Amino acid sequence: MLDRLPVEIVERIVAKIPDTDLIAASKVDSVWWQEVRQEAYKRWKNYATTIGHVQALRKPFEKGNIDWISFEDVNDFYKRWIDRLTEDQLYIIEKMLRNGMVVDPQERETIEHALSKQRWGGDPWGLNWEWNKWTQQE
Q1: Residue ranges of the domains in the chain?
Q2: Between the N and C ends of the chain, which has fewer C-beta atoms within 10 Å?
């Protein structure tokens, strides 16, 4: 029955599916596969954009014009936020890669590199959390 729904309805349904179940929906038929692929790319882009916005939000705190206790709280908060967004993004792109949804060789290479860095405890996107020099002092 799901394979007989109009594309517009499939688009709406796919948009509501959580990340953890998204790729499974691609197994219905080719229309669902295409819609899931589009939605996965959209979510990948949204995660990347959100990560960029979060990085921009922390900029005022790099100036060193806040007290140390506030700095540690802010630093921890932003680090956890970025880490969570990165985990969610990597989850989506790994599922896309494993299910043949990434056809561009450069994208495939980028994803494989990011996943490899994550597995070894690295920073997959090179988002160094180095703050200004006064925070690095002992």
Answers
A1: 7-117
A2: C
How far is the C-alpha of 69 from the C-alpha of 75, rounded, in Å?
A: 10
CA distances from 84 to 11, 20, 27, 78, 104 (A): 26, 14, 27, 10, 26
CA distance 126 to 107: 16
Is residue 119 scored above 80 in pLDDT? no
Read off the pTM. Answer: 0.73
* 127: CB partners within 8 A, 6+ apart: 51, 55, 82, 86
Q: What are the tens digits of pLDDT across the range 4-34?
A: 788 888 899 999 999 999 999 898 888 889 9
Query: Strand locations in 15-115, DSSP E?
Result: none
In the chain, helix, strand, coil percent, each to 5? 75, 0, 25
Query: Token pair for residue 33?
Result: 């596969």
Torsion, CA 22, CA 16, CA 46, CA 23, rounded to 10: 10
From the number of C-beta atoms within 10 Å of its C-beta (0-12, 13-18, 19+), residue 70 rates as exposed
Cα–chain center distance at 8: 26
Whole-number Å distance between alpha carbons of 71 and 13: 42
